[in-house]
Each structure stands twice: as C-alpha cells, then as structure tokens.
Structure prediction request, 236 residues.
Amino acid sequence: MSNIYDHAYHLEKAIRESTDFQNLKSAYEAVMNDPESKQMFESFRDTQLNLQEKQMQGLDITDEEVEKARNVVELVQDNPTIAKLMEEEQRLNVIIGDISSIITKPLEEVYGFNQDEQ
Amino acid sequence: MSNIYDHAYHLEKAIRESTDFQNLKSAYEAVMNDPESKQMFESFRDTQLNLQEKQMQGLDITDEEVEKARNVVELVQDNPTIAKLMEEEQRLNVIIGDISSIITKPLEEVYGFNQDEQ
Ligand SMILES: [Ca+2]
Ligand SMILES: [Ca+2]
Prediction:
C-alpha cells in the first residue's frame, strides 16, 4: 500500500523535473507575463468554460455566444505566445493520458479487457 | 521523458503487486466462479451501463427501467460475494483517485490552484 504511494510520489517528481513539464511552465509564464496575451488567454478560457457549462446543463448556446467564441479562438490562434502554450499543453496531455493507460492496465486485465496483451 | 514512463511502469507494478489489487482480483474471480453471482453481477453492470448511456444521450428513463434497476441493486446488495467485490472496487478507486491527485499536482500548480500548498 505505502509502496504504491511512494511510487506515485516518485512519478510526480519525474513529471515535475521533466523537460516537457518545465517547457509547459515556461510557456504558461510567458503568457502570464505579457498583459495582452494574458487577457486573451483568460478570455479564451472563460469562454470555453462557459460553453462547456451550458452544454453540460443542456442549455441553448446563442448565435452571439458562438460568434464570440469563434472570435476568441481566432485571436488566440494568431498569438504565438498562446499557441506555444497550447502546444506544450497538448504534449503534457498525451503524457498524462499515457500514464493513465499504464496504471489502469491491471484493472482492465481483471475486468477482462485487453486480454490479448496479458 | 523516458524517466516519466519508467516511473509509470514502476507504479503499475506496485499496484499490481499490492494486497489491495490482489484482493480485488480474488473478489472478482470469486464472483466469476459462482454462476449465480456472475449472472447477477453482469445483469447489474448491464443495467448501470444502459442507464448511464441513456442519461448521457438525454433520453427519458421509463418507470419500468427504474423498477428493474432497483430490483437488480437489491439482489446485488444481498449477495455477499458481489458485496465483497464492490468493497474492493471502492478501495481501489480511492487509491486510483489519490494517485491521480498526486500526479496532476504539478499541473495544478502551474495553473495557479493549490498555491498555498506549494
Ligand atoms: Ca503582446
Ligand atoms: Ca451462489
């Protein structure tokens, strides 16, 4: 039991010390240190969260909101500092997804999935 | 980078070798090796998955389905072999949840959550 947690903390440390994580951190700080990019990124994040929330609640999304979201995405895509951050986020997401697949494999085997991989 | 994956595989091994995981595996096998429990457990799982699917698609759940689900849950709760499996599943879910919190902590810190824990 404690062994599992020891290994989880070792993994956390490896993530924290990885080039991929350090690059993400730098990319995030670059956005936060540029007022224009920061404001644009926060506006993008707010817009995404609002739309997600509405979708989850089954609420209608107005034409005005679709238009606003489209504008924010266009602004964000043209901003190289934010584009860099999104690239690094994507990279970390792949790693986190891989880790999740690796550590849930024992459970999948119990429940009979991926039996050909055993 | 490869270091992250090394640690992820070490963690997977620690999970696989843990008493908690071995107990889950035994509890699952006990259910699968008892035809009555197996059939009940599979019926329970199918019912849960069907209801989840309907909810996600925003479809109505009929009175008949609610009644059927209630019956299946009652049967399952009275079966000690399945009750044991669910207890072990719950235990593993807590561990997996803890691991997930531990390894996503660096990301949370980048995005400014849990700043008091840094
Ligand atoms: Ca600028
Ligand atoms: Ca029996």
